Amino acid sequence: MKYINFEEASDTVSDEIYMKEALKEAHKALEQGEVPIGAVIVSNGRIIGRGHNLTERLNDVTAHAEMQAFTAAANYVGGKYLHDCTLYVTIEPCVMCAGAAYWTQITRIVFGARDEKRGFSNLGRANVLHPKTTLMSGVLEAECAELITSFFRNKRIK
Amino acid sequence: MKYINFEEASDTVSDEIYMKEALKEAHKALEQGEVPIGAVIVSNGRIIGRGHNLTERLNDVTAHAEMQAFTAAANYVGGKYLHDCTLYVTIEPCVMCAGAAYWTQITRIVFGARDEKRGFSNLGRANVLHPKTTLMSGVLEAECAELITSFFRNKRIK
């Protein structure tokens, strides 16, 4: 296996690498019967926070993947702002998570697939995210979407 | 002191009683140098969750009063939905907290003073709160507003 230096990798390549890490988190959620959404937060080529959805296990609607990743990353940096950080998340953040992202002033958000129903962008991006935050979508979109679509498909069959 | 049966008290009286409890939480935040916002969650006349802002102490933007109250209440009821519950919070919830309230399907939200800058209602109520949730504002408004205004006034003087 070829060693990849994250910082030298092109943006597209490194975005996919980190989204794969978010997908690993989503799979951890799936193994626990949770809606399979995962997230990582990256700063200077290093993953400083991870999270996967645990709302059922914890009986807590605030236990979204992104929220846990924000808390973990803030703990790592020893401060509440996530400047020079990127959030990678498999599914578009909901209003709660986008609202949390605002407070972190995170530099960049990259998500895989849209959440047509509860994605924050339904409210209009400008009013939710921090003006410093840039947004990118569609990284490993098909894989991120398929994971969640098949989860709900299987739930309906059972 | 006359004993007040919460369930028999008129709505206005009981709303003020619970908002005073939320104000007690806000004072706890103030004592720790935090932005003084407090919250309680009430179900059938009983306070089942409390929280005050701890974002500085925990270095965590997700540690808003409401978020902690949601988690505490969900823990109390043993489920993630807060049906037949009311959130009392001294200041209008931000987008993150309103987004969390959506997921809880909480029956009612009562807040004291508006947050003109970051209150969720800037985004339009209809799209943020759950259709089942009713909203009321202005309970002990002056007291709730004064607490936070004087906090920031003192911060500027120092």
TrEMBL record, chains A, B:
Family label: Belongs to the cytidine and deoxycytidylate deaminase family.
Active site per UniProt: 66
Cited SUPFAM superfamilies: Cytidine deaminase-like
Coiled coil: none
Protein's name according to its UniProt entry: tRNA-specific adenosine deaminase
The protein's Enzyme Commission number: 3.5.4.33
Family matches, as InterPro entries: CMP_dCMP_dom, Cytidine_deaminase-like, tRNA_aden_deaminase
Organism from which the protein derives: Parapedobacter defluvii
Binding residue positions for Zn(2+): 64, 94, 97
Catalyzed reactions per annotation: adenosine(34) in tRNA + H2O + H(+) = inosine(34) in tRNA + NH4(+)
Domain CMP/dCMP-type deaminase positions: 13-123
UniProtKB keywords: Hydrolase, Metal-binding, tRNA processing, Zinc
Pfam families associated with the record: dCMP_cyt_deam_1
Function statement: Catalyzes the deamination of adenosine to inosine at the wobble position 34 of tRNA(Arg2).
Cofactor binding note of this UniProt entry: Binds 1 zinc ion per subunit.
Subunit (UniProt): Homodimer.
